[in-house]
Design goal:
This protein has one domain: Tgt2/MlaC (Nuclear Transport Factor 2, Chain: A, Roll), CATH 3.10.450. It is 52% helix and 20% strand. It has a five-stranded antiparallel β-sheet with strand order 1-2-3-4-5.
Length: 204
């Protein structure tokens, strides 16, 4: 069963071809994007007893593709090696990052015991971002803060980072982890690592 302390939003990567958003979706503000994503997570949690991890992966894939700017995230995490990579390498890394990102959510959100998401508020953030502050409340009124860092890209508000407990940047954690792997093994090594981790999560 999903535990609040194990929420690991992830890591997540963009599809090789993003689905187009309807006009009403394109006009959605930062808080609306986060709220819709939370609705999808809750729906998956409530069906977890009757669906396996692959089914949850399939359900969450379009929701994550719609809500997250995963291309920006892997570009930041990859740093100079992303910038120097050729298009084929970038595409392969993006695909692996996306797969692990969705697998992480599918694995973590594997049960429901009365949890709920609450919207706390939003405010301007640094570098033209909007910070959407939320919390997930457990059945015993335990809660964990989640602040979504929203960035507008091509007239769409997308999640560019998540701050756990409103302070720990998941993107910074990934950047540190991935750059160590890139320094040792290059992009091919990082792709292999991400796919191996996804395989492990999807085998549960």
């Amino acid at each position: 069963m999903m535990r609040v302390c194990r929420i690991v939003p992830l890591v997540m990567a963009v599809m090789l071809s993003w689905p187009l958003m309807a006009a009403s979706q394109a006009a959605s503000g930062p808080a609306t994007i986060v709220g819709e994503f939370h609705d999808q997570l809750l729906a998956v949690m409530k069906r977890a007893e009757t669906e396996d991890v692959q089914q949850r992966f399939d359900t969450l894939s379009p929701a994550i593709d719609k809500a997250f700017d995963l291309e920006r995230m892997i570009r930041v995490a990859g740093g100079s090696q992303w910038e120097s990579a050729d298009p084929a390498q970038r595409a392969t890394l993006l695909k692996a990052f996306r797969r692990l990102s969705i697998a992480t959510y599918a694995s973590q959100f594997n049960g429901y015991s009365g949890e709920r998401f609450e919207m706390v508020g939003d405010r301007p953030g640094p570098q033209d971002t909007v910070l959407v502050q939320t919390r997930i409340v457990g059945a015993e009124d335990t809660d964990a803060g989640l602040t979504y860092v929203m960035k507008e890209t091509d007239s769409r508000w997308l999640i560019a980072d998540i701050l756990l407990d409103n302070s720990v940047s998941q993107l910074a954690v990934r950047r540190s982890e991935y750059r160590r792997i890139l320094a040792d093994s290059g992009i091919d090594g990082l792709v292999a690592t991400l796919n191996r981790k996804a395989d492990e999560l999807l085998a549960k």
